[in-house]
Structure formats: C-alpha cells, structure tokens
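Ticket #4471: structure export looks truncated?
Reporter: QA, pipeline team
Priority: medium

Steps to reproduce: submit the single chain below to the structure queue and open the exported record.
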Amino acid sequence: MTRDAKASPAPRGGASAKANAAARPPARKKPQPEDQPFAEFVPGLLIPAMAQACATHGGSAPTLQLQEASMPVVGGRCWQIQGELPGPRRFWLCFEKPDINSRKTFALAESGHEPSLLEPFLIDEKRVSLALLVARLVQRLNGQKWLGPN
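Actual output as written to the record:
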C-alpha cells in the first residue's frame, strides 16, 4: 500500500454526530404534577400536601374535602376545598373552574359564624404550582393564627 492509498480515519464528531442528534426525538420534559387533571391533582396531591403542611406548623391536620358546591358569601356553583380545623374553624378555597390556574377565592369563618368576606387568592400568578398553593394557604391560615402557637 502506498502512502496515498492508506485509508484515512473517519472524521470524529463532525457531521454524523449532528445528523444523529437531529434524528433523535427531542427530550421530553418530565410531566409536572400540576399537569394532571384537576379531579386527580386535588384529591391525590393537593389535599394531602395541605393537611401535612398544616400539621407541621404545630396545629392539627384539618379535615379537607373537594366538592362542587355553592360558593360562600356570593353563591354560584364552584369547585372548592372545604377545610375544618378544631374550634370549629372553617375555610374554603374555591376554584372558578376545575383548573388550578383558574381564578381562586378564599373564605373563612370562626366557630358558629358564616363567612362574610370572599378574598381573591393568588390573583397575580399566571401558573400555579402545588408548592405555591400549599405555601400560600398555610401562610393565610397562619396569619389568622389558626395554626399552632404564634
């Protein structure tokens, strides 16, 4: 074999690596918990996370349930998480539509009273996460001094 006849090694990395990368499907993002349907996300993830977060603040875990019912104070049907703490202290986290990114309101009532005020809840957030919903609910209840010693 002469010098000119020697086989040259294939180029490393070059065009063939780029072609292989282009041929592969794009990497899929791991689905976020918030991407689950509302009817699965709320009872499966949100309610247990809320109960646990309230309990870790020194209070007892609230009784929580998801249902479609009349919105406190103003009426009209909505999806809501109804919660009750010892006392009995009650609160409602209402969703205008069965979607965690829909408009949300919050109401609460002390023992023996009906709620008289409906507050906007997370109105500035475009995309809501599990952690954000739980943190803001705990912050609101703790601000009311309903969770543990303050």
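Status: closed, not a bug. The export was complete when the record was re-opened. Leaving a note from the reviewer for reference: The beta strands are 63-70, 77-85, 89-95, 104-109, 119-121.
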